[in-house]
Amino acid sequence: MANWWAVRDREVAVLTLESIKFDHYRLHPGVERNTIDWGLPRTRLHIPAQYVKRQIMLRKAVLKYKPDIMISFIDITNIRMLFALVSTGIPCIVSERVDPRYHHIGISWSLARRLLYPFSNTLVVQTNSVTAWANRVVPRNKVRVIPNFVRTMPEPEEMIREEGRLNPFILTIGRLEKQKGHDLLIRAFACVDAKQKGWRLVILGEGPERSSLEKLAVNLGISDAVDMPGIVKEPAEWLHKARFFVLPSRYEGFPNALLEAMACGCAVIATDCPSGPAEIIRHNENGLLVPKDDVEALSAAMSRLMEDEGLRTRLGQKALNVRSRFSQATIMAQWDSLIDSVCISPE
Q1: How many CB atoms lie within 10 A of CB 24?
Q2: Following DSSP, what letter does each residue of 159-188 receive, concatenated?
Q3: Burial (0-12, 13-18, 19+ Cβ within 10 Å), 244
Q4: CA distances from 308 to 138, 311, 312 (A)
Q5: Among 56, 68, 317, 335, which residue's CB has the most CB atoms within a 10 Å radius?
Q6: Starting from the edge strand earliest in sequence, which strands make up the sheet with 122-125, in order?
Q7: How far apart are the C-alpha atoms of 251 and 239, rounded to whole Å?
């Protein structure tokens, strides 16, 4: 988003609460990059003072830039930002990036969200299914639905999805945490005897559940058929080689990994979880949807794609339509319209 605006003569800065060393994507040279050294409290007794100090740092960082508008992403960061902007007169759009009905942030943060979100100019959610929640938090006229766009995916240099000469593998991408349902996928992979049929499972991502997922694969006797390379620089290189992609999540926001898989022409399976997949996939047309937390249904869908090359090809070709449905130009036009409306009439 920042890069889009930078090449369209908007002055844009990116502020994060983590060091630049954690950056994964490359920013346009025209984007001003800022970060706050958040620090850690020395003891529990220092937590209140540290919180106040952090809020002051955040407020100073924003006021130094003097923006016409702030856009804040992710629940707790949104709360911090709204609190930091009190009495500044700076308009603020807050955006929820995961389904708040299932992603719990604790009683105190949830109460703070309820109290502070009404002071935002707009609350952006990513799917229609989340609007019912949003309408209970802020006035209806402050709610906007803007999904993610799919970035332009690198094209393969040659037709590498030649099924006869590649070791077949199933791919998923996502942070290694319970929300993403990788444990369900590993169990489903074992249920269909994929290892015995010469298939492999590749899980890209990193997170706190790595050791438990590795133990699960060992206990199921499939550890030598499950690869977990961690975070990779360009997932498209894997997506172009995968026979198909699976998103086994328990809940989502609007999954970029699923969009990118479809934009690469992968046949996809996704759980019909809240929220996102059902607003991207048309079942049996451009992908397959299965009930969430249902290993049996997931394994049946995987077996279906493993055995039917024609179905994989047909679904993959139809999946490419996300490139136009969720193009950057289409989605960023919605953001531009929202920003202009808030800047013209911030109240």
Answers
A1: 6
A2: ----TTTS--EEEEE--SSGGGTHHHHHHH
A3: buried
A4: 48, 5, 6
A5: 335
A6: 70-73, 92-95, 122-125, 143-145
A7: 22
Look at the pTM and tell me if it is higher than 0.85. yes
For residues 308-326, average pLDDT: 96
**φ and ψ at residue 72, rounded to 5 degrees:** -115, 140
Dist CA 50 CA 33 (whole Å): 24
What domains lie within the chain, and their CATH numbers?
A: 2-149+327-344 (3.40.50.2000), 169-325 (3.40.50.2000)
Q: Across all residues in the chain, what is the average pLDDT? A: 91
Give the position of tokens 């202009």: 340
CA proximity to 226, closest of 235, 214, 210, 209: 214
Q: What is the pLDDT of residues 69-101, one digit of tens each?
A: 999 999 999 999 999 999 999 999 999 999 999
Bridge partners, 247 (sequence order)? 270
Predicted local distance difference test score (pLDDT) of residue 163 = 44
Q: Is 287 helix (H, G, I), strand (E, B) or coil?
A: strand
Alpha helices in 255-294 (DSSP H): 256-263
